[in-house]
Every structure is written in structure tokens, then in C-alpha cells.
Amino acid sequence: MSAPPTLLLTGAAGGMGTLMRGLLPSYGYALRLLDARPVEPLPGQDGPEGPVFTAELSDRDALREALHGADAVLHLAGISQEASFERVLTANIEGAYHLYEAVRAEGERTGGPAPRVVFASSNHAAGFTPRPTGPYPLPPEALIPVDTPHRPDTYYGLSKCFGEDLAQLYADRYGVDTVSVRIGSCFPEPSDVRMLSLWLSPGDGARLFHAALTAGTSGHTVVYGSSANTRLWWDLGPARALGYTPQDDSEVFAPALLAAHGEPDPADPAQSNLGGRFCTDPPMWPY
């Protein structure tokens, strides 16, 4: 019997990293965990799910050690909200560069293909794209396509544009296969009406990442990441083409959220674009 594929999970101590640590082992992955912060055991467990590397992405030796023999990387590390340009530059932009350089070097070391990277991009890479409006469900022609131009709404969104372009460079120049997933909002349940359109359930998140890690694609592929929501704003076709079959829909949460908040006003600057309140000044989190 062959050994399970080894997956390096960066950002393992973060919110999404913690969710994926609990879900991805059921798909057969042997996890390695990397974060600048200590990785705490999941509830009910005595220890983390695999070897832990506590290091910044700028620690090239630790990163190379963590990648040694890895089959793939799920890159969730970095700042997940707006911050000063200096902080975003260090954590998200330079951090992504260090990660891809280490992946390239691991492929060079083995003489084979470099580990595949699934990069956690964001809807905020296209945040100033006008959002479509109902009635829901929207017809296919009204959905935001995956090839919509970059329109970042923040320094955070800009870092995700950089990450996608960096992935394209490393695919074209070094043959590093990457799937960039423009994630909406991955939480156990949506917390406002806008999230009804962008919600990615943790279970569907694991399904999508597994599809991205195993799809027979090459080069750089960009997909949107959400559940099959009734109020969906974007085209999930490219994600489905990877083998992703979402099973959840945020509409079960709609009655309570609409009763609490009402339908958003599409003319409101905080509601008129894909990036929501990230398109306002100052941008607000969580969106």
C-alpha cells in the first residue's frame, strides 16, 4: 500500500487552517503544519495532526525543511484582512514569494515535478467589480466570470492579485502547478446577508481544496470558492471542472438573516461591489 500524500498546510493555526486540519485527513492526506504561531491541538485530540513547524515564511531553512518530500501545499498563511501596506507586504506578498521559491527549489532537488500549490486567493482581488443583483438564482450570463480583471479593493486584495500573478509566473517559468481559489467567506455559517452569496461551508471548502489538489490540470488555474448558494454571484463552473461538487447552500440561513438585517441596498457603497465594505473608506472586517 502506498503512503498517503503529504500535504504542507501553511497558516495551520488560523481560522481556516484549523477548520481544514479537522477535515482534510479524511481525504487521505498526511498533514504537515506550518505557522508563525503555535499550533494548538484540535478539541478532543492530544496533539496536532502531524509534524509542526513554527516559523515565519521568511525562514528559508525551516520552509525548505517543511517542504522536504511534500507532495503538495495548501497555502493559507498570511494576513486575512486589511492592514498597513508594510504588514501586508511582509506577510502576504513577500511570504508568497518565499513559499513559491521553496516549492521551486524542492522540485529542483528531487528532479521531478515541484509540489502542487493550492493558493488561498480572495474575492477581494476583484473587489471593485460591480456585484450582480437578483432575483435569485441569477441566470448563468449574470454571474461574475473567473476571468474578470483584477480590481483589488484594499492592500489585502492587492496582495491576492500579486499571489495569482506570482503563481502564473512560477507556472510558466518553472512548471509549478497552482490552483488559485478566490475564497468568499469560509465560516461554519454566514453572519450577514452579503455572506449568503459568498459563503463557503467548511465541508465544501475541504471538497474544493481536495479537488484542486488532485485535478488533472497543469499550469495556473483560477477558480471561485463558495458553496452552491441560491444567491450565488459568481461562476462556479471552473471549480466544478476540477471535480468540485458542492453540497451546501446558504439559503437555509436566509430567513433569520433577512429578518435581522433586511435586504441590502445595492446603491449602498458597502453593498454595490463584490468586495462589500472593503470598498469603503476605511474598509471594514469581516467581509
Provide key terms for this protein:
287 residues; alpha/beta; seven-stranded parallel β-sheet; 7 strands; Uronate dehydrogenase; Epimerase_deHydtase
How would you summarize the topology of this molecule?
Layout: E1 6-10, H1 15-23, E2 30-35, E3 52-54, H2 60-67, E4 72-75, H3 85-110, E5 116-122, H4 155-174, E6 178-183, H5 195-198, H6 202-214, E7 220-225, H7 237-241, H8 254-261
Parallel strand pairs: 1-2, 1-4, 2-3, 4-5, 5-6, 6-7
Briefly characterize the structure.
The chain is an alpha/beta fold. It contains eight helices and seven strands; from the N terminus they run βαββαβαβαβααβαα. The protein has a single domain (6-279), classed as NAD(P)-binding Rossmann-like Domain (Rossmann fold), CATH 3.40.50.
